[in-house]
Amino acid sequence: MAMVNVGLGIGRAVVILTASVVATATLAAQHAGASKSAAKPSAGNQAKIRLAMTGAPPDIAKGATVVDIDAKGQMKELRKGTNGWTCMPSSGGAAGAAGADPMCLDQTWMSWADAWMHKTDPQVKSVGVAYMLRGDKGASNIDPFATSRTADNQWIVSPPHVMVLVPDPKLLDTMSSDPHNGGPWVMWKGTKYAHIMVPIRAVAATK
Asked: Which segments of the chain are extended strands (E)?
């Protein structure tokens, strides 16, 4: 009789253990499936990620965080990165009219962009680099907040270019602000948002 009780006890333990293992495996599979589903961007976001990555050299873009900017300037993370760079499919107005003008910014430029969006003083403590390898849709060369061309705001549609920030704005004093000078120029010279534009191709003549 004792042997029977022992047998029944072992049997119950085996059943309970088996049920526990099955339940745990099921929950793990469900969790893994949910995590995989949550981590995979939608088709629309995947397209935005691919577009954003064309703004910088591949070795930078592949490890960059990708964000999207809505009409109100709010950022939504589409992909978490690992290298400190941030890419976006459109400048969101940071370079004039919205469109397919992807850009990739380092951490210094992201801090600057936040100051620009909130119209506060940027705190540039180190050299900053940003890429717009597909060019932009246009911006005023003198007014940081212009959103369209006027008769006197020097509207420039830039070709593919690199942008550079420097900690000491006095370093920009001797540089030209003319985008047609055949080399780098200072955009928004004389303002707290001044930065160096380094075109990769010649800037088209203003129409």
From this structure: 65-69, 75-79, 86-88, 103-105, 128-132, 139-140, 155-156, 161-165, 185-187, 195-199
Q: How far is residue 198's CA from residue 128's CA, in Å, rounded to a whole number?
A: 13
CA dihedral 204, 142, 149, 145 (to 10 degrees): 130
Interatomic CA distance for residues 92 and 113, integer angstroms: 11
**Above 50 in pLDDT, residue 148?**
yes
CA atoms 165, 169, 171, 172: torsion sign: positive
Alpha-carbon span 30 to 51, nearest angstrom: 32
Is the pLDDT score of 136 beyond 60?
yes
Helices (H), 62-144: 107-117
Answer for the pair 185, 152: CB distance below 8 angstroms, yes or no. Answer: no
Does residue 143 surpass a pLDDT of 50?
yes
Using alpha carbons, list the distances in angstroms from residue 158 to 81, 91, 121, 130, 133.
28, 13, 25, 14, 10
Q: Cα(147)–Cα(71) distance, rounded to whole angstroms?
A: 13
- Return the sign of the alpha-carbon dihedral for residues 157, 135, 125, 186: negative
Q: What is the DSSP letter of 77?
A: E
Q: Give the pLDDT confidence of 25-41 residue by residue, as tens digits.
A: 343 444 444 444 445 77
Q: What is the pTM of this model?
A: 0.77
